[in-house]
Amino acid sequence: MKTKPYIQDTSSLGYFVGVTLDRFIKSMQDDFPYATGELSQLLRDIALASKIVSREIGRAGLSHVTGAYGHTNVQGEEQQKLDVVANIRFIRALSKGGEVCAIVSEEDDEVIDLQNKTGKYVVAIDPLDGSSNIDVNVSIGTIFSVYRRVTPLGSSIAPEDVLQSGVKQVAAGYVLYGSSTMLVYTTGSGVNGFTYERSLGEFFLSHPSIQAPASGEIFTINDGLTPTVGLGVVEFLNTCKRKGRTSRYIGSLVADFHRNLLKGGIYMYPASSKNPSGKIRLMYEANALAFIVEQAGGLATDGSRRILEIQPETLHQRTPLFIGSKGLVEELMGQL
Ligand code: AFP
């Protein structure tokens, strides 16, 4: 019988066509001979929860999960029903997996101690970011950071396991529930994006090795803030306008960040008189995106410090955030 080797030539389609998230995670794990597979499993747990949340979001208008839940979170913000649904889904997935010992969530005042003394990892998560956009069918997202616990396995969790600076992240990512659902993540060796194929129930690699353009034409800020922000930011905005740059603002950090990551731009949420420490939460918004943007060649700062080097003091600490293409962040810094 004549045989021939199976050579899959997908070069004309792009090398990565057909790679599922599971297979990709496995191939990354294989690069680390001592990896136990726990981080891989954790990433799969997050992906699974995000598929469920994507489904809930997709039918939100029909299933009575839009609107307020009737409770205010620790930030003083009114929780939406979908915030609560997403929080439950992610916490359930992370607690069932067995790799995680503690979770910090935007929706919970205190650290969630999973009482899992063999869990190696701590997760900080904003289960559903951009809540004000839920009811109006505009893109929203999930943001997550993963840290290795610092106390020995077998012991109870301690504050130092949780309050770690962004440089200590071992993985970070976001899910964008937009015109399609995408999961973008890094484990510190580049950034890769996966698009959800709903009918197959799988994420497929669609954006391999994402690189942030070195500069760009998009500036992103809530313009209503500008009368109360620092003069340096105002000056930078005037420069952007003089140079004919484009202003784009969705009000969902994940969506605004993702657009600028792919197209080149800068997202700004400075300190203002309303939010003297900025609005964006360090532990489950800024750090993950800062890790991703740096891995993609961009920058993230609070105006004077690299976001990843800020030592968090409290769980829900806020920070000013300037993040995006290197050239634009540097230009802004020159005017601060
Ligand atoms: P929520 O998830 O609490 O709505 O916060 C959204 C967010 O942190 C971020 O996603 C947006 O970029 C920013 O707030 C929008 O803030 P403004 O409404 O003040 O522009």
Textual characterization of the structure:
The structure is a single chain. This protein has helices at residues 21-30, 38-58, 81-97, 159-162, 231-242, 253-263, 282-295, 326-335, and strands at 68-72, 78-80, 100-105, 112-113, 121-129, 140-148, 169-177, 181-186, 191-197, 202-207, 218-220, 246-247, 265-269, 280-281, 299-301, 318-319, 321-324. Strands 4-3-5-6-7-8-9-10 form an 8-stranded mixed β-sheet, sandwiched between helices. Helices cover 29% and strands 25% of the residues. It has 336 residues and is an alpha+beta fold. The mean pLDDT is 92. A hairpin with a 4-residue loop joins β8 (181-186) and β9 (191-197). 47% of the residues are buried. The longest helix is centred in the N-terminal third of the chain and has 21 residues, at 38-58. α2 (38-58) packs antiparallel against α3 and α5 (231-242) crosses α8 (326-335). The chain folds into 2 domains: 17-207, Fructose-1,6-Bisphosphatase, Chain A, domain 1 (2-Layer Sandwich), CATH 3.30.540.10; 218-333, D-Maltodextrin-Binding Protein, domain 2, CATH 3.40.190. Bound molecules: 1,6-di-O-phosphono-alpha-D-fructofuranose. Residues 77, 129-132, 222, 251-253, 256, 279-280 line the site of 1,6-di-O-phosphono-alpha-D-fructofuranose.
